[in-house]
Amino acid sequence: MGKNKAARFRENLILPNVIQPTRDQAINDFEHKGKWKEFFGNDHPIVLELGCGKGEYSVGLAKAFPEKNFIGVDIKGARFWFGAKEAIESDLKNVAFLRTQIELIENLFAENEVSEIWITFPDPQIKYRRTKHRLTNPEFLTRYKHILKQDGVIHLKTDSEYLHGYTLGLLQGLGHEILTAHHDIYGAPEYQPDTTPLLREIRTYYEELFSSKGKTITYIKFKLKNE
């Protein structure tokens, strides 16, 4: 482990906006489950960024929407350290970072506790044997439905045409509500994401990287059907 990476891990231990439960703590009675409003000290809606990387979306949205609380979720703490530090330096009280596996999300948030979920540039897990790790597969969607409010929305922003197509087909096949979908949000000037502010303005590290290589950026906004 590099010195810088090790230093970030150490600093994460003392940053007030970073929560790092052990796997046992996450599975067995996680202290903030159902009590995130107490953590933030308000009753504002809670928005998650899953696989948040450096936390660009979490921080960017927190700056734009002080009336909401944002939580970046990722297992790689050395990455979201950047977002956590920026949030503190910007005096943002409405953003935090949670180091955990996304598979445990139901253990960390109570039923109907989350208003919105962003999934930004996840690994598309193209190989068939990796299907279970795709963040939009049926098992993950079931997990999200458990923690989302009834009218909660999910956003998927990715450079992977494969994951975009896979998710669209899956949503249609399962009867979920696709609110909007586009295969190239920057290449089509007629596309105006009025219902999703800052969709183009906030760019993650990976988005900048993929765009510079000529890859198109796709987007889907959807709701999970009520049983």
TrEMBL record:
PROSITE patterns: SAM_MT_TRMB (PS51625). SUPFAM superfamilies: S-adenosyl-L-methionine-dependent methyltransferases (SSF53335). It is an enzyme of class 2 (transferase). Coiled coil: none annotated. CDD domains: AdoMet_MTases. It catalyses: guanosine(46) in tRNA + S-adenosyl-L-methionine = N(7)-methylguanosine(46) in tRNA + S-adenosyl-L-homocysteine. Its EC number is 2.1.1.33. Belongs to the class I-like SAM-binding methyltransferase superfamily. TrmB family. HAMAP family: tRNA_methyltr_TrmB. Catalyzes the formation of N(7)-methylguanine at position 46 (m7G46) in tRNA. This is tRNA (guanine-N(7)-)-methyltransferase. It comes from Epilithonimonas ginsengisoli.
